[in-house]
Amino acid sequence: MRIRLAIAIAALAAFGLTVSGSARPQEKARLLSAYGWNEALEGFGGISALELDADGKNFIAVTDRTLLLQGQLQRENGTVTGVTLTGSNFLLKPDGTRLTGWRRDSEGLALRSDGRLFVSFEAGAKVWAYSDPQGPATRLPGHPDFKDMPGNAALEALAIDDRGHLYAVPEAPLTRAGGLPLYRYDGTEWQIVQRITPSERFAPVGADFGPDGKFYLLERNFGGIGFRSRVRRFDLADFAPKGEVLFTSSLGQHDNLEGLSVWRDGAGYIRLTMVSDDNFKFFQRTEIVEYALAETLAKASLSH
Questions:
Q1: What pLDDT was estimated at residue 103?
Q2: pLDDT in tens, 282-303
Q3: What is the CATH number of the domain that holds 82?
Q4: CB 276 within 8 A of CB 257
Q5: Any signal peptide, and if so, which residues (predicted)?
Q6: What whole-number distance in Å separates Cα of residue 244 and Cα of residue 210?
Q7: If you write DSSP's letter for every residue of 64-121 in order, what string do you get?
Q8: 175 φ, ψ to 5°?
Q9: 3-state secondary structure at position 216
Q10: Spatial separation of the C-alpha atoms in residues 272 and 263, rounded to whole Å
């Protein structure tokens, strides 16, 4: 990703940044928790995407070095208190061998209801599918735009809607005037279905469809001494290209949030669960961060 060199330069300034509190009160999502995650597993770190099941417990995640992680989130009163890994393996190329070097930059992850797994890669701007996460990949056809995407700002986020259609978002638009393309794969080809108004400060890093059917986009800004994150929500049926901003974190409040999973908990709250990519740097941290939509919390409060 484009931020890696800047991160290395800003290492000393970034070291020691801590969570500074919840999102601003007037925002539409409220911080619930931030859990630091460490594993004594070779290759752990650099987590770039996350998928949770419907009850927010079982997960799959992928690092930007093609390591697929499977496990469970431990919760007390709904708050994440631990992580139990149940499996891990490196993703394979279509020929059954492993990716190496810069080509293994896996960034996006999406899980279809039939268990088929999709992974996007910035290197070569490609999407691969896995019927078996431990087996060889199947390469999906590309869109003509994909070949023109720079290797450090290509396909960054994947999401699947309730019809099983796959969506992809690049980290940056190809042109300033063109807007940020939202690509949809219908099983045969990719098409641009909408163009999102890009931000000069924030870049897309993760996406998901929520239980409300809306499209959620996680974006990240690197401010020289730390990160800011935000989530925008879009109604694709009644599309507004700027969407609505649900929260914007303060500088250094969280680490480099890149993976997003949106789900509804047992109390009816829509939760935004995110995971950070520590870029395998000692001065960064892997954390699982959860927000809840304030509008959902208000409705739940009124029902009691």
A1: 78
A2: 999 999 999 999 877 766 555 4
A3: 2.120.10
A4: yes
A5: 1-25
A6: 14
A7: TTSEEEEEEEEEETTEEEEEEEEEEEE-B-TTSPBP-GGGG-EEEEEE-TTS-EEEEE
A8: -135, 155
A9: strand
A10: 7
- Within 13 A of 246's CA, how many CA atoms are on the CB side? 26
* CA 27/CA 200 separation, integer angstroms: 21
Judge whether 232 and 217 are in contact, CB under 8 Å: yes
Total number of domains in the chain: 1
Alpha helices, DSSP H, located in the chain: 4-9, 11-14, 294-302
Please give the structure tokens belonging to residue 300: 């739940």
Q: Are strands 117-121 and 106-111 parallel, antiparallel or unpaired?
A: antiparallel
Tokens 């708050």 found at: 79
Instruction: Give the predicted TM-score (pTM) of the model.
Output: 0.89
Q: Residue 299: what residue type?
A: K
Pick the closest to residue 280 from 4, 87, 2 (CA basis): 4
Give the H/E segment covering residue 192. Answer: strand 190-196
Query: Which amino acid is residue 286, in one-letter code?
Result: T
- Tens of pLDDT, residues 208-267: 999 999 999 999 999 878 999 999 999 999 999 999 999 999 999 999 999 999 999 999
Residues in the chain: 304
Cβ contact 212:234 at 8 Å: no
Q: Is the dihedral of CA 184, 190, 194, 196 positive or negative?
A: positive
Using DSSP's 3-state secondary structure scheme, residue 208 falls into strand
Which domain range does residue 157 map to? 4-302
The pairing of strands 126-130 and 257-264 is unpaired
Residues 4-34 have pLDDT tens digits of 434 332 332 333 333 334 444 468 999 999 9
Residue 70 CA: distances (Å) to CA of 26, 202, 231, 269: 36, 29, 25, 24
Could you read off the pLDDT of 69-121 as tens digits, one per residue?
999 999 999 999 999 999 999 999 999 999 988 778 999 999 999 999 999 99
Cα–Cα dist 260/245, whole Å: 15
